[in-house]
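Researcher: Sequence recovery benchmark, item below. Answer with residues only.
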């Protein structure tokens, strides 16, 4: 998880993510002056919270999909596709980053 991502839990245990994009000096000053919030927010449901909790930087995505498949009544291919799409969305929102190990 990038350093500029805030994680909070609500009373139901769901995760709420907020990322504040890095603005250049002028954009930051103008946004502050106008009171504009450029942050991106997402509220995760039960499955999203479970998925996000499994992301640890070491566990491969296929292992996370296996764990989610074991806890759901869905087809394995459907769970894997959902994991890939949700990971892509979180990466697009800059709420997670891909770690590529150096060989």
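Model:
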């Amino acid at each position: 998880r990038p350093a500029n991502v805030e994680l909070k839990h609500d009373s139901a245990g769901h995760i709420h993510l907020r990322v504040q994009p890095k603005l250049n000096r002028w954009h930051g000053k103008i946004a502050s002056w106008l009171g504009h919030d450029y942050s991106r927010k997402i509220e995760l449901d039960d499955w999203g919270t479970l998925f996000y909790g499994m992301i640890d930087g070491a566990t491969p995505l296929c292992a996370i999909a296996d764990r989610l498949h074991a806890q759901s009544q869905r087809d394995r291919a459907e769970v894997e596709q959902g994991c890939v799409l949700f990971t892509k969305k979180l990466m697009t929102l800059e709420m997670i980053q891909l770690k590529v190990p150096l060989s």
